[in-house]
Design a protein that fits this description.
six-stranded mixed β-sheet; oxidoreductase activity; 11 helices; alpha+beta; FAD/NAD(P)-binding domain; seven-stranded mixed β-sheet; protoporphyrinogen ix oxidase, domain 3
Amino acid sequence: MDICIIGGGLTGLVAALPLSEASEVTVLEKEPLLGGCMASYQRDGYWIEQYYHHCFAGDSHLFSLLDDLGLKDRLEWLKGSTGYYVEGKVHPLTSPMEILRYPHLSFIDKARLGVLTLRAKGLDLSSLDDVPAGEYIREHLGERVYTSFFEPLLRSKFGDRRDEVSAAWLISRIAIRSDRGVEGERLGYLNGGWHLLIDSLEERLLSKGCAIEKGTPAISLEHTGGKWLVNGRAYDVVLATIPPQEIKRISGDETFASLPYQGAACMTLGLDRDVTRGIYWVNMKDQAPYGAVVTHTNFAPRERYGEDIVYLASYFAGQPAPDLKETMLSDFCRRFSVPKTAVHWSELAVERFAGPVYTTGFARLIPAYEERGLYLAGMFSRPNYPERSMEGSIIAGLEVADRIMEGQDD
């Protein structure tokens, strides 16, 4: 059986592992590097992800995969501190005392926020799918908690579409991030970088005889004569890990629904200084051309890199502004008093389909693993709802592979 997997991100690579055992598998990846949003830059002496990533204590499928690839001993648990940038100042919000000192919420506001954090894991997410996140927070915690705490978070993740996001996503995010102590969240990172996971998957797949074609986008998809034609080449089975609207575009099949998606523009900077007061993740309450400042070297040890590494995270709909890189860099340098000479290097990664926007009613939009003879899996699949993650992408890859193999046995 000949199988084509469109997309060399985590879901596609994971699905290819079991499928390569008994089939001829070809992976098509449009970019020159595998990994999708998990691709990395190679700098002098180290690797750094194009988009920041970490994992959580409950990611059992990820841990099993790392173990299988001989990478389990590389997994380390680090502290993820948080803060907010408000009125030109960074406010740490990691420890209970820092939260109590935060001047933009009252004591009652903070108590309500604490109760919600404790209750989040027990709430029924399915009942929140049709409830806007902003409406939920305003009703249960009040307007000030929304504007001073949650609105910057929603804006940093979803930009202009933040008012469409469901409470299911927000509560899920609170629940998954409740593994924290006085020093911050307990988050997992791969010592040496997540490129080790992608490279190990590639090496394993090549050893199984899988063909991997980088820099090769799928530009056409057609079903004819009992075969699927991808770029004119015939396959028995196709697994598409790209968004359904992209399947619609390359196939011309208008019956594939478009899901709400957003693009991401993530700038990575190498600096000679720390600008976020030792804090890993700073959400921007003040208006800026980025929603969060993520200082990777306040998470992973700085000595591994020899410089401070900062991400500026921005999301967009459609196309990013043509001058976005310079706009982000200029604003960052001005806002954080960083001279241009302190910036060793900068890169801007842009992905038009970085991930779904979990709008109200999203649960009803999730496609099945098989539609009209085509297999679909990716960040839009059910294991990635209501919050996408490496764990969800791995589960989606394993489940769709099982479905493909079951379908061939029928």
